[in-house]
Amino acid sequence: MYFSVITPIENLRRQAAYELAKPLAQSPYEEHQWLWQFFPSNAEQSRDFIFRRHEIAQIPRFYVVSQRPPTAFSEAWQVQSRSYDPQLLEGQRLSFQLCANPVVTKKNNAGKPQRHDVVMHTKKQLLVERGFNAEAKWKEWSDEDNKPLLYELVQKSCIDWLQSRASSNGFAVIAASVDAYAQNRAGKRHIRFSTVDFSGELLVTNPTLFQQALFNGLGHAKAFGCGLLLVKKIEGD
Predict the structure, then answer these.
(1) Is pLDDT of 187 > 60?
(2) 177, 206 in Cβ contact below 8 A?
(3) Average predicted confidence (pLDDT) for the chain
(4) Which residues of 1-28 are buried (b: 16+ CB within 10 A; e: fewer)?
(5) Is 75 in the same domain as 180?
(6) pTM over 0.85
(7) Tell me, what CATH number does 17's domain have?
(8) Which residue of 58, 62, 64, 100 is 20 to 30 Å from 214, comparing CA positions?
(9) Which of 18, 50, 83 is the last residue of a domain?
(10) Up-side HSE of residue 228: CA atoms within 13 Å toward CB?
């Protein structure tokens, strides 16, 4: 496996911004398609990388974990890659950052499984418990009627989601916070999906499972830049 950082060449940032502008204007999925250009392959090749886009001073930076090392397809971009074989120990503490797509899967009226944004699902549950009908909107609940604060609802529902996936992925959450929550649309069918930025500390409980989480990502919507866990050793440990 390889861990790579893809950034614009300093004196070619304008060209890099131009090349990235069209896919960004279309949808997050087009951004994923744009990244494919760093991984030349045939049409049958399935996606063998996960990524996260991060901006520093409005300069885009892509973190990528892949089975193959990416190669720059344009003179405006540089790729820094290294072999990725993290040495993990049971009981090891790490700080982490994660952009994820937290969902719960429930059967619809036709009995088929359907994914629901975890925040929206929690809202509907709370509305029904409060006596509203299943089609009620969150804004119908008066702020004066013991309505939960949205900030607290987002924090709790998203962190509960993360904790529910921790054990099966080889870690335990020591501390976590939700730094951002956003709803997005992507693709010609205007697919709706949410993204949540987490940060905090975790404890490795199963190095083998946790390594797979680092390589394969966590949760859904990986084609939209979700799932990649960025981890770092905690100083003093």
Answers:
(1) no
(2) no
(3) 91
(4) bbbbebbbeeebeeebeebbeebeeebb
(5) no
(6) yes
(7) 3.30.70.1200
(8) 58
(9) 83
(10) 21
pLDDT tens figures, 167-183: 999 999 999 999 999 98
SS3 category, 44: coil
Domain that holds residue 200: 93-233
**Longest CA–CA separation in the chain, Å:** 60
Residue 80 confidence (pLDDT): 97
Mean pLDDT value across residues 179-195: 79
Q: How many domains does the chain have?
A: 2
Q: What is the pLDDT of residues 51-79, one digit of tens each?
A: 999 988 888 899 999 999 999 999 999 99
Q: Are residues 64 and 116 in the same domain?
A: no
pLDDT 10s digits, 126-138: 999 999 998 899 9
Alpha carbons 141 and 133: distance in angstroms, whole number: 12
| Cβ pair 150, 144 in contact under 8 A | no
Of 83, 104, 122, the residue that ends a domain is 83
In a domain, 88, yes or no: no
Q: Are residues 9 and 102 in the same domain?
A: no
